Amino acid sequence: MTTKEKVRDLFEENRGVYFSGEEMAQRLSISRAAVWKAVNALKKEGYVIHAVTNKGYCLSGQTDVLSAQGIRKYLSLGIADMEISVFPAVSSTNTVMREKALEGAADRYLILSNEQTAGRGRSGRNFYSPGDTGVYLSILLRPGEYLAGHAVNITTMAAVAMCEAIESVSGEKAEIKWVNDIFVRGKKVCGILTEGSFSLENGMLEYAILGIGMNLYDPKDGFPGELEGIAGTIFQTRQDDGKNRLVAEFLNRFYACYQSPLPWDYVKKYRERSMVIGRQITIGIGEEIKRGRALAIDDQCRLLVEYEDGRQECYSSGEVSISWDREKR
Fold it and tell me: CA 156 to CA 272: how far, in whole Å?
C-alpha cells in the first residue's frame, strides 16, 4: 500500500475527525513531509480536506470520491472481503473484467471506474460514460450451478437491487423498464449488461460479468443531444459520499438475493417496479419489430405480450419501448 493510500484510508475511516500531521505520521509510520505530500495529492484527486492550525487535517463529509476503502466501510460482513479495484478511467469495465476472468480472477472480484472511453450497452451500442458524474462497475460471478438460461436472472436480480439501493440512498422512486433499464423521475439513470461464458459440454455458466452504468449527477455540459430528454440522474444535487454509499448499498442488496437459498423470491419485487406492465409497447427482436400490450412478467422474468389479434407471446430478451403516443389516444 502506498503512502497516499494509507493516508486516504485513515481519512475514510474517520471522516470529520481532525488529525495533526505529527499524529498521522506516528500512526502510519511515515514522515510529516510524506503526510503533507499525500494530503496534497488527495486534494488534486477531488478529496475535500480541511487544514486548520492547531487542529490538523480533516476529510470533509462533503467529499464524494469513489474508492475501495470508501465502499468497503459500508459493506455487509459477508462481502466485506471482496476484492475491489477502482480506476480513474477504462475502456469498458466489462472488457477489462473479461480479461481478468480469463486470467483466473476469483468470484466476487469488483472493478469500478469514474469514466469509460468505450462503454458498451446492449446490442453493441455505446454507453455514454462521462467522467466524475457517473459510476461504472463490473462484478465477476462464478455461480457454478447456473444454466445458460439462468443468466437473465442475474440481470433481473441486479435491477431489483439497484432500485432498492437508489430508493434507500436517494429517497427517489425507481422503476424498471424490462429487462435491464432503471428509471427515476421518468428518465433512464442506469443500464445493466450481463455477459457470460458457457460450457459447450454441459451448458453451465462458467462465469458471468455483471456490468452496470449509473448516472449520478448531470454532466458538466449536459447529456448529448441524442440522450437529452431520455437520460436522467439519480441525484439532483451533490451528495456526501454518494458514490460509495450507493455502490455499497447495491452490493449488499444484490448479494443478499444472489446468495439466498430462495433467490427467485425477488421476482415479486421486480414485477412491483415494472413500468411496462399494462402498457402498449414495441419490442424489437433482432431486425423484427412487434407491437402489443405488456400483460405480465412470469416467474422466469419473461415478458408476456398480447398482440392486437389476441395472440400472446413470451419473451426472455428484446428491446422494449413504451408507446406513449398510442396510450394518449
Answer: 13
